[in-house]
Amino acid sequence: MQRQTYEFVEVSDGRYDLPITLKQSNRKLARLPGLLLMTALAGLIVVPQIALAAYALASADVRATLVDHPMAAVELAIALAFWVCLVCWPLRGMLMALICYRQVDIRDGEVKVIDETPFSTSTWRAPITTYEGIALHLRSSLSGVRHEAILVHPSRARNVILMVAEQIGEREIRELCRVLGVPHISADRLYEFGGPSGGHKATNNLAPVAA
Fold first, then answer.
1. Averaged over 7-31, what is the pLDDT?
2. Per-domain residue ranges of the chain
3. Which pTM does this prediction carry?
4. Strand 144-152 with 133-141, pairing
């Protein structure tokens, strides 16, 4: 499953006290226009490429030319694959953001994460003692700037967003640290690990390690 960043974090019972259960999701309607636009763009770029490839395979003359010039066939195949991946990969990311949900359960000294889509479910666990601490991260987007309280792990794929708000103060961070028994650390630790979510500084998500 692709790593995702989650815009909504709902805490069970409305309070951060062990055991903690978090439900994470994204805005659906806000992302739908971008998905439709990217789908249309994919159709405009990829469909003609596929039609050209089908024509080449159906034409005896073109097939014969490609057989006589195998390097040309390889170059055309690489070009087709490049354009398909260039358009379809971000389209896949946008679709996954629409259909992905995450549940985080923290209890008994362990962090358990369940990632769900309509097609699959993946689960991983990590002891709370393996986490470095909690960092406050500021994320910029078209909708503005929001604060994220992130439980930071040496393996960036296991970073967990604990809280999302327009403003998160030191008091909230200290309370989270007290409840989980971890220190408040600098956001620089996120970037030392390659970004808050494991790919770059503007993404936060986890790669499942067990299905």
1. 79
2. 8-26+100-192, 32-96
3. 0.62
4. antiparallel
Find where tokens 């978090």 sit. 22
Strands (DSSP E) contained in the chain are 8-11, 20-25, 101-107, 110-116, 121-127, 133-141, 144-152, 160-165
What is the fold, at CATH topology level, of the domain defined by 8-26+100-192?
A: PH-domain like (2.30.29)
Specify the pLDDT at position 64: 81
CA distances in angstroms from 63 to 56, 66, 71, 106, listed in the order given? 6, 5, 13, 60
The rounded distance, in Å, linking the Cα atoms of 194 and 141 is 19
68 vs 118 pLDDT, higher one? 68
More confident residue, 84 or 131: 131
Q: Which residue has the tokens 């409840």?
A: 179
Pairing state between β 101-107 and 20-25: antiparallel
